[in-house]
UniProtKB/TrEMBL annotation:
A biological process from GO: spindle assembly
Organism from which the protein derives: Plakobranchus ocellatus
Lineage: Eukaryota, Metazoa, Spiralia, Lophotrochozoa, Mollusca
One CC-aspect GO term: HAUS complex
Protein name: HAUS augmin-like complex subunit 3
Length: 411
């Protein structure tokens, strides 16, 4: 069921009253809405501000006097207005009644007998008396009501269903309490978070202070270590500065080592032995030792490769020699003389094979030289090769030669 416009207005008015009742005085405490009451005092002409304040006070007193005058004349003016409205209603009612009577007369429905007219008049008089009786209490209470309304000028009056308004007021009060509880809880959460943030910020500040102190201490130590390192690397402060570069004549062990490392031609005319010479000889001897060790390792690897190859060859020779033969006691054992005879015969066979291969190569080279020197033999060799490898090419060559011979005969 939708609310009427009157109820909506009443609802808005009740909400406004509740807001003003619950929050009254807060805006005044904060100074909101009172900016026109504050002004800067001009030091050059301070009397202007005083005159302005006096004018405001005078206008306020005039407004109060005007309101008091309106309250005093309100009952009489309101009574006159109500009497005028009543007289207007009476006139409208008389006009309407006269119009209805004329319509009745025109339509011929008006009673014609005196008895019916008398009864109609009595009923109308009775209704008029009843209306006057009902209006008399209202008219008697009208002056006091107008007097009361005059005192209430400048204020607003609630009208409508008061039970509904009270229920709505209770509803808004409950909702307002819920809103206040939510706001209180939200403010508590906000203050708790602010407290936590402050604690965390303080912890971060302490951590930052500690890290800054540690950084400063470590930087100081690092600078100290760098300074010590520079001092140690300084040649003027090194102990090597006080060490001699020549071997002492009483140091027989170093001199003996110098001669053991090897004598060079440039060492014959030396009056004294320098330590740098001993170091250079030691490095040279170490380099020779490294080279000899590497060469020895290389020779060992070559020797081992040769031995492994000989073993493989001996295994292959043994396999070819036995050729899969077997006896009841296994493969027969060979004596050293038999092995030597077999190796000698194999060496002779290899030499004869090498000689035959050399002769074949020399014969082929002679034939190649003859073919190069004799064009006809070269052509014959080429045709012989084509006869076995490409007969079609040979046939094509023969046909071309035949055509050329015919052409020469014709000419």
């Amino acid at each position: 069921m939708s609310a009427s416009p009157c109820e909506s207005l009443n609802k808005d008015f009740v909400v406004q009253i509740r807001k003003e009742g619950s929050c009254r005085g807060i805006a005044q405490m904060s100074g909101e809405g009172l900016s026109n009451q504050y002004s800067l005092l001009d030091l050059n002409s301070p009397q202007k501000d005083v005159v302005a304040d006096k004018n405001k006070e005078q206008s306020f007193l005039e407004d109060c006097e005007e309101l008091q005058r309106l309250k005093q004349i309100f009952p009489k003016s309101e009574c006159d207005r109500i009497n005028a409205l009543v007289n207007a209603k009476k006139a409208h009612s008389a006009v309407a009644e006269a119009t209805a009577l004329l319509e009745t007369l025109k339509g011929g429905h008006f009673p014609s007998s005196p008895t019916e007219i008398g009864h109609l008049r009595k009923s109308i008089d009775k209704n008029i008396d009843k209306a006057i009786e009902e209006a008399q209490p209202l008219l008697s209470s009208l002056p006091s009501l107008l007097q009361e309304l005059g005192s209430l000028q400048g204020g607003e009056i609630l009208t409508g269903d008061y039970d509904l308004k009270l229920k709505r007021q209770d509803y808004f009060t409950k909702k307002q309490d819920q809103v206040i509880s939510h706001l209180v809880s939200q403010r508590a959460r906000s203050e708790f978070l602010s407290l936590l943030y402050d604690l965390e910020l303080r912890c971060h500040k302490e951590t930052h202070a500690l890290l800054s102190a540690v950084t400063q201490v470590l930087t100081k130590h690092l600078r100290g270590w760098q300074q010590r390192k520079e001092d140690l690397e300084d040649p003027d402060l090194s102990d090597k500065k006080f060490q001699g570069s020549v071997v002492d004549a009483r140091d027989t062990s170093t001199l003996r080592m110098f001669h053991l490392l090897g004598d060079f031609e440039s060492d014959k005319d030396l009056l004294c032995v320098q330590k740098q010479k001993v170091v250079e000889k030691a490095k040279h001897l170490y380099a020779q030792h490294t080279c000899a060790k590497a060469a020895d390792q290389t020779m060992d690897e070559k020797y081992m490769n040769k031995v492994s190859q000989l073993e493989v060859c001996a295994k292959e020779c043994e396999e070819h020699l036995y050729a899969g033969s077997s006896t009841s006691s296994g493969q027969p054992m060979l004596s050293s003389s038999e092995i030597q005879d077999a190796i000698a015969s194999l060496t002779n066979s290899l030499a004869a094979l090498k000689k035959d291969i050399t002769e074949v190569i020399l014969n082929i080279d002679k034939k190649k030289g003859a073919l190069k020197s004799n064009v006809l033999q070269s052509r014959e060799r080429e045709l012989f090769t084509l006869f076995h490898t490409n007969p079609e090419r040979l046939e094509y060559i023969v046909n071309s030669l035949a055509e050329r011979s015919k052409a020469s005969d014709i000419q």
